[in-house]
Design a protein that fits this description.
With about 250 residues, this protein is an alpha/beta fold. The chain has ten helices and nine strands. It has a single domain, classed as P-loop containing nucleotide triphosphate hydrolases (Rossmann fold, 3-Layer(aba) Sandwich), CATH 3.40.50.300. The strands form two sheets. It has a six-stranded mixed β-sheet, sandwiched between helices. It has a three-stranded antiparallel β-sheet with strand order 2-1-4, with helices on one face. It is globular, with a radius of gyration of 18 Å. The structure holds adenosine-5'-triphosphate (ATP). Adenosine-5'-triphosphate (ATP) binds near residues 46 and 57. The site of adenosine-5'-triphosphate has 14 residues, from helix 1. Belongs to the ABC transporter superfamily. Keywords: ATP-binding, Cell membrane, Membrane, Nucleotide-binding, Transport.
Length: about 250
């Protein structure tokens, strides 16, 4: 498979911070590949996801390179990258109809008039398996459960048919059953659309369920990356082994 995205020596430092949030990350992602990024809180996972999507705050200084061999233009968030945040409550606009929030992304990125964008939004709400999508398009975020809101956020993230979907702890705020449903939805959508996926999670079990490959982060560095099967069977670092043991312990 051809490379969609390549990171070389990627580092990020937030202004005023004593240490870098991310340092020396070399990573490539193939078109259509599903990569999980795991590690404990503060290991730099969100910083990596935001750096790739161009969503770092102005206070962050970036080193190294992010290139997109799989695109013939600079990557644009919304068009080439769909980003799903942890908290759908804060990523959705409380005073804008849900369908319009999905339509807005299509209108802005697909050179599409509002009428067509609204029609497409209803199709997307249906694709993410929300009931009565036409009625739901006219509803507001406060009328939905957390899982339903995350489905709307996913619809908005994929409406412009991006090559890469980044889910940054997108299931962490949800209960276990809803979490499994959203993981299943993400898996189905990336398979159907041939999208690459970066799934950021602190949960190695969820990650292993979804990803072809896992990259393990600790203190801003990538300590290990391997295919999911290899990492689960033969973790090369004590840290990855500890994450696995903690997960298996919880399962038991
Ligand atoms: N906007 C910011 N300004 C300053 N420091 C930040 C900012 N965002 C993150 N950091 C710091 O950068 C480091 C990496 O944080 P990051 O959020 O990337 O880790 P994470 O692995 O995603 O953690 P979590 O799972 O808790 O979100 C941490 O030390 C964090 O405090």
């Amino acid at each position: 498979m051809s490379a969609l995205l390549e990171l070389r020596g990627l580092g990020v430092r937030y202004s005023g911070a004593a240490t870098a949030a991310l340092e020396g990350v070399d990573l490539a992602l193939a078109a259509g590949e599903r990569l999980a990024v795991i590690g404990e809180s503060g290991s730099g996972k969100s910083t990596l996801a935001r750096a790739i999507a161009g969503l770092l705050p102005r206070t962050a200084r970036l080193h190294g390179t992010i290139t997109w061999p799989g695109l013939d233009h600079p990557a644009r968030n919304g068009r080439d990258i769909g980003f799903v945040f942890q908290d759908p409550g804060s990523s959705l606009d409380p005073v804008m109809a849900l369908g319009d929030q999905v339509a807005e992304v299509a209108h802005a990125n697909l050179d599409m008039g509002w009428r067509a964008a609204r029609r497409l939004a209803v199709e997307l709400l249906d694709r993410v398996k929300l009931p009565e999508p036409a009625a739901l398009a006219r509803a507001y975020a406060h009328q939905l459960s957390g899982g339903q809101k995350q489905r709307v956020a996913i619809a908005a993230a994929i409406v412009a048919r991006p090559k890469l979907l980044i889910a940054d702890e997108a299931t962490s705020a949800l209960d276990t059953i809803v979490q499994a449903e959203i993981v299943a939805l993400i898996r189905a959508l990336v398979t159907e659309d041939g999208m690459a996926l970066i799934f950021v999670s602190h949960d190695i079990g969820l990650a292993a369920n979804l990803a072809d490959r896992i990259a393990v982060f600790r203190h801003g560095r990538m300590v290990e990356q391997a295919t999911t099967a290899a990492l689960v069977a033969r973790p090369r670092t004590d840290y990855s082994r500890a994450l696995l043991v903690a997960h298996l312990g919880l399962e038991a």
